Every structure is written in structure tokens, then in C-alpha cells.
Amino acid sequence: METIFALASGSVRAAIAVIRLSGPQALDVCRALSWKGDIEPRHVHIHTLTDPESGKALDQAVVLFFKAPFSYTGEDLVEFQLHGGRAVVDGVLQALAKIPGCRMAEPGEFSKRAFENGKMDLTEAEAVADLIDAETEAQKLQALDQLHGSLSRLYEGWAESLSGILAHQEADIEFPDEDLPKGLGTALRPNIEHLLKELRSHLDDNRRGERLRDGLLIAILGAPNAGKSSLLNALSRRDAAIVSEEAGTTRDIIEVHLDLGGYPVILADTAGLRATDNKIEAEGIRRAERLAEKADLKLALFDATKEQDAETLKQVDARTTTVFTKADLAKGKGLSVSATTGEGIDLLLKLLTEAIATQFKTRAGPVPTRARHRAALEEAASALERCLLADLPELAAEDLRLALRALGRITGRVHVEEILDKIFRDFCIGK
Question: How many CB atoms lie within 10 A of CB 380?
């Protein structure tokens, strides 16, 4: 096993930079950088690091040693806390690369080793990545809850119950009782039905966890020159979209990421809805309509100085907030805003925040946060449904095994080598 190293802190100019290395040669690497004497675990040491080839000083660093298995990765792990200048960091990284058996870590490799050494399961490892990527309070809280094992405890509890059911079912097969009916043992059926009910309830969450990770999508819809781009700029407080009196200026979807009430939001400006012979504009309108279909919420904009257009009216449904624009020129029969004067913008933001909070309304218990969680849970539920209908005890037992295997893939308690690279490749280097 090679010893890996990486910059664990940000790469920008800072007061402190942290370089982390993990593996069987971690202490040897310290000695290669002119360390003399022993390194006591979990004690702070101050040492001048030097280049192993030239002997030139690299930096005076704070050095911490975490002895296996009591470290983040479960291996010997060393952290160098350096001065955060780019030249200092680059010099130490280059020096480490010269040491035989020591190489730069791949993205997520520290967390992957932590998983492989039993320091965390896959849901907790994914939570590490989510916590680093979190941009809003709600995203942070969801990631922390998952990191603390909320999903692990739930799924492992189900797996433990399922293991007990499977053991009893296999006992019925090995030691049949003439009085027992064929297929699933009657004593086991209520337990399986209860577990299946919990699985289905867990899945019936409107994909809240996944949407919280990715952001809730709000589509801004309306006729050309209804003020969509101006409203986008007003809500985002920057010139994200080009504003022009010429109809059809917006041809493609423009997205802005916002934090509304602690929730992540993707605000999308779309092409103006109207009949057109222009092929490029028509494609933009088709994209706007497709986006409207999948949007969590919609803003239907109407120019208060004109009649309400039919194409935008078609988009109004239960997910839609109707907004009348150009309130500085005229008032509509409802919520009126002006991107020019700012009138009504705060009220619109308040209404959107309330609607988003309703969409993300917290319910008891953790929720799936990734598509792979949902796919495995659906597979487990389908297997349990088949189990309840199985005619032969052997078929029922096989479906129980398939359900147990599906749950195990979520936490990594069964063989999951084929999905490890996919999970960890999106991590940042150094984590």
C-alpha cells in the first residue's frame, strides 16, 4: 500500500495550509524531511521541514501524527500545518513527490481508505462530500445528520431485521414442519409486511433529500419583454442575464443559484413564450416548456401594461406564482413588482421562501439523499413484494437475500467495488 499525500486545505493564499499524508510510510516520510527523534501520537510538534535532495529549508511547520487505527483513514496519518503561501505549499508538495513510495492522492482517496478500513460506511463518506459542497444552512444540516449516522442506523436496522427473517425462513426450509403451508412462513409475513411499509414510507418523501442536495428549481416564464431577465437580475442582485427591449433576446436557459431562507434554489430565466418562425428561438421556447414541466415552482410573469398572454396562461397551475411586472408603469390584479424601482421584490422573495420551506417541509426521520440510495431501496422493496407472493419457500428466501443485498449496497456492507470509484471520484483531492 502506497503512502498518499495531498493539500487538504484551500489552494488560495491563506495564513495556514494543511498537507495530509496517510499510509504505512507516513513516519518515514517525516524522517525523509529531516525529522530527528520520535514523533509522539496526538501531540503538537514544531519542526523545520527540508527538501530531501537539496537539504534546503521548506518551512517551519506544526506536525501532528495519528497512529493507526486511530486516525481518519485508519492508517498512520501525518498532517503538516504550514504557512499558507503558494511557494511554501508547492515546495513541500514537490519534496513529498520525490520520496519513493509516496504519491499524490486521487480525489476522495483519503475517505475511500477510511471506508475500506471500517472508519465509516458509504453513506457517511458521501456526507463528507456533501458537507464540503454545502452552500446553504439546510444543506449543511442534512449533511451533518447523515455524517452522524442517521441513514446508516436506519438502513442497518432494516438489514438486521431482514437477516433475522431470512434466518427463520432458511430454518423452515432446512427443517420443514408438515403443518406449515408452502411458500413464506406465516409467522414471518407480518414482519416482512411491516418492513415493506417502512421502506415505502421512507421512499415517499417527494425526493426531498436529493432536491435539497441539488437545489430546488424555479422557472421564470412569460412572453417576450415581460421582464423575466430583469426580474432574474433583481432577485440575484447582479446582471446575470442580458436585458433588452428587443424581443427574443433570451434564447437559452440562464441559471442563477440563490440561498433563500437557508434552502438552495436554482432560478432559471427562459426564452419568451410566443409563436415564432425563427428556428433558434423556437428551440429556446421548447426548452423553456420542458424546463417548466420539471420545475418545482414556476413564476408566470405578465406585463402589467398589456393583456395577459395565452401562452403564459397555459403554464399557470398549482406550482405557479403569478407576478405582474413593470409596477412602476401600471398595476396588475395581484402581486406586482418592478425591477426598476424594487417595488414588490421583497414580498416576492418572502412568498418564494415560504413556498420553498413548504416544499422542503421537514418530516420525522432521515431521507435518501442520492439516486443510488433510492434505486437500491426500490430494489429492496420490490424483492420484498415478490417474497410475499412467492409460492415456494426457496423463492421467498431468495427474494429476502436480494432485498438484504440491496440494502447492503447503500452502506457498503456487501461487495460494492463496482460503485466505489463512481462515489469517490467527485470528492475533492485531500479528502
Answer: 28
